[in-house]
Amino acid sequence: MVEASPGALVFLLLAGLFAGGVNAVAGGGSLLVFPALLAVGYSPLAANVTNSVAQWPGYLGIVIGARRDLREQRRRILLTSAVAVLGSGIGCALLLTLPGAVFDAVVPALVIMASVLLALQPRIKRWIGAPDPGAPDRMWVLLPAVFLAAIYGGYFGGALGVILIATLSLFAHDRLVRLNALKGLLSLVIATVTVVVFAIGAPVDWLAVAVLAPTTLIGGFLGAKLAQRLPENVLRWCVVALGIAVGIWLIVG
Q1: Rounded-to-integer distance, Cα 162 and Cα 4, Å
Q2: Of the candidates 96, 110, 202, 249, which lies 20 to 30 Å from 177 by C-alpha distance?
Q3: pLDDT tens-digit readout, 206-243
Q4: C-alpha closest to that of 54 among 190, 182, 242, 217
Q5: Per-residue model confidence as pLDDT tens digits over 162-205
Q6: pLDDT for 25
Q7: pLDDT of residue 224
Q8: Can you give the pLDDT at residue 250?
């Protein structure tokens, strides 16, 4: 735990607001909060679990805002949510049972991988193309893919939304706006599991959560309006550059 100064709390508050805006425009806001927590003195493990818990309200806000697009997806929601619960539980268990040295060794690669995925997001969208609403879902591939994404989300979670929307767009055939709503719901499901598990057995800093959680939610609404003054690509590449820099810093530090 870190004894946060008023300046550190203000810094985290601003990071949460900006991350919420980035999530609303380009995605990848969690990659801003994670280095912000590192910057004020948190260990990588504490920063990861605190960041995961703090993102929960933001996902709830996405689901509330997109609830109309979740209609008539009952079967898809039930099946993917079930495997998301299992996968995120396994990811959390791996994080808490493996030695801390394993996480310290793996997290730089995860940060860099998440940053690269965020950088490739426009190409992934073009490669995937527009999903065909009339075709049946390829559940035999979709469910294992969501399961693996959920393990990643329970263990680390940076750029989870990018991974989920790519997975859903490839294997679930529907309009992208409806799949994006499902992505928000699955992110909320995974985050709920991490909140429950990490609240019991992880070094969550609840003061930082109290600062970050509401600001990520507010940032999703207010921050997006400010962020829209910049082109999406500018925001994305700023987050990508920061993520890669943090990954390299963790390797050499």
Answers
A1: 31
A2: 110
A3: 989 998 988 888 876 665 455 456 566 776 777 778 77
A4: 217
A5: 788 878 878 888 887 788 889 889 999 999 999 999 988 888 99
A6: 62
A7: 46
A8: 75
Q: Say how far apart CA 153 and CA 156 lie, in whole Å.
A: 5
* Contact of 204 with 49, CB cutoff 8 Å: yes
Query: Are 61 and 185 within 8 A, CB to CB?
Result: no
